Each structure stands twice: as C-alpha cells, then as structure tokens.
C-alpha cells in the first residue's frame, strides 16, 4: 500500500454505531456528504446499534474492501481494529464515544467530521502497533489492576472536573489497597504494584523505528499519590512521578490472587489471575491526515 493512497480508486465502506455517545441519526447523512465532497462513493454503509455491531464488523472486514471507516465508541473502535491486520482493510476510526482513545491518538482533538475531512483530503498510511493479553488486543493503553479507575480520574481532570477526579482517585485507591499485582518486566525480577499501565506508542509515518511497549508499574501509598498521579497524567509526563517504575519492552507478566480487572482502550475486562502482555508489531494500518494538514496534532505516544 503506498504511503499516500488514492482513495478514489479504492473500495471504501463505512460502519456507524448510532447507539454510541456522539453518533446519532444525522451522522449517516453527514458522513455521506463528506464522502461525496471527496469524490468517494462507498461500496456499503452499515448503520447499526450496539447489539448488531459485532455481526456488522464481521461482514465489513470480510467484504473485501480496501478502506473501512468506523464511527463509534471505544468498544466499537477496538473491536474493528482487532479484526483488521496487515492485509487490511485500512482503518479510519472516528471518535463517536466518550474517551475515544485510538481516534485521539491518530487525530488529536479533531471532531469526527474534521478528522474524516482532513484524512480524505490528504491521507497517509500509519502503522499501528498493539499489545495483546489473553485473546484481547489494545492499541493505545492497557491499565491493569483495581487502580485502573485512575484512568477515569485522569479524564475528569483533563475535562476540568477536579471534584470527580478526587472522588474517582480515592475510590480507585480504596479498591487497590490490599489487591497488589505481581509484575515482571522482561529481564527484571518480579515486583509488586497497585497497577500496571502499558502504552502502545505510534511511530512516525514511514519510520523504521523499532517501537516497543511502554510499561509502567504504579505503587500508590496514599490518596495524595492517587490524585497527584491523576493530575500528572492529564497535564504532564506521569512517567516521571515518584510512584512510577518505567520500562520499554516486548512483553511482561502480571499475576494476582484474584481475577485481574483491566481497561483496554477504554473498555473494561476481567482477566485471569496470571496473564502475559505481548507486543503485536504492525497490528493493522490506519489512515490519518498528512502532517501539513491544519488541525489538532495527534499524540505521537498514543495517550
């Protein structure tokens, strides 16, 4: 696939989950108008609600299309990305939910309309690396352990709701106390922490840079640590916090006396008591706007 594909010559399809947060009944017409303006006639558009998403995604990824546009929440986007691979289709994941983790990593703070318009105007191919735990893949961030609720505290801080951040941070801390994880970063001895965070950085387009998982173990000692970490993760480099042990690696092991709660790209899961997280190199390819297109810059590190 060339780095700047000619979309007018490719088979393009779209899937909309109209039950997600910011994707309503008018989204289909708006998306159609943007495609028409770009001179693209989609081969098919799936307009579905939550219970029909998985079947529609199966049909969409098996339909032999070259480009799949998906508008939906984090669960829809992650499910679509997990069905794509190095052989395609190329994915345009548009923000239609709450956290919108993968769309934010690719398109920054753009609305879904602007992200689609800019991408169709000057598309480039972006390799997206991922992580895998059990049968689940994630492409931006995995948060493991009871303190995974800190992810929600982070979003509240970013949105200016410090009261909610305080409440969520303390709630996460209470759940985390007495529920430590065992973790082992490759080449290091086993240690314990309240939570382990694994990020999947995005490499620069057309880069040969070897991209590893970016892992951090968080050892929280009190409510002050929880709230400070939530603030740092929203506005500064949280890896520099004194509660964080950081490493770049291909795999890590996580253990617990109880099933391990996790948030993978904004979606909640309950895992087993012993899990290995591994890197998935070039899990799929996405389309994003060329860097010279005006708009909110995407985050090069995925979260």
Automatic annotation (TrEMBL):
Source superkingdom: Bacteria
Molecular function (Gene Ontology), one example: kinase activity
InterPro entries given in the database record: ATP-NAD_kinase_N, Diacylglycerol_kinase_cat_dom, NAD/diacylglycerol_kinase_sf
The UniProt record lists the keyword Chloroplast: no
Domain DAGKc: 12-119
Protein name: Diacylglycerol kinase family protein
Keywords assigned: Kinase, Transferase
């Amino acid at each position: 696939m060339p780095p700047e594909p000619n979309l007018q010559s490719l088979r393009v399809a779209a899937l909309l989950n109209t039950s997600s947060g910011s994707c309503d009944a008018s989204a289909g017409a708006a998306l159609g108008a943007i495609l028409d303006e770009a001179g693209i006639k989609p081969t098919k558009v799936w307009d579905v609600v939550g219970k029909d998403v998985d079947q529609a995604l199966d049909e969409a990824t098996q339909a032999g299309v070259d480009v799949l546009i998906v508008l939906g929440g984090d669960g829809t986007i992650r499910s679509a990305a997990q069905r794509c691979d190095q052989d395609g289709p190329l994915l345009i994941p548009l923000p239609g939910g709450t956290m919108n983790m993968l769309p934010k990593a690719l398109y920054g703070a753009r609305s879904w309309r602007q992200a689609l318009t800019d991408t169709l105007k000057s598309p480039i191919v972006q390799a997206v690396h991922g992580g895998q735990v059990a049968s689940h893949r994630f492409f931006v961030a995995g948060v493991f352990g009871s303190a995974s609720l800190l992810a929600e505290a982070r979003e509240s801080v970013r949105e200016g709701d410090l009261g909610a951040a305080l409440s969520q941070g303390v709630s996460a801390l209470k759940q985390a106390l007495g529920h430590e994880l065992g973790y082992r970063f490759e080449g290091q001895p086993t240690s314990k922490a309240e939570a382990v965070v694994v990020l999947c950085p995005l490499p620069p387009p057309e880069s040969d840079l070897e991209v590893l998982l970016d892992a951090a173990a968080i050892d929280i000692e009190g409510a002050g640590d929880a709230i400070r970490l939530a603030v740092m993760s929203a506005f500064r480099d949280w890896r520099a916090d004194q509660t964080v042990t950081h490493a770049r690696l291909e795999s890590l092991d996580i253990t617990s006396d109880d099933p391990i709660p996790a948030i993978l790209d904004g979606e909640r899961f309950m895992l087993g008591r012993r899990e290995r997280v591994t890197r998935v190199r070039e899990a799929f390819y996405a389309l994003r706007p060329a860097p010279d297109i005006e708009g909110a810059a995407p985050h090069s590190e995925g979260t």
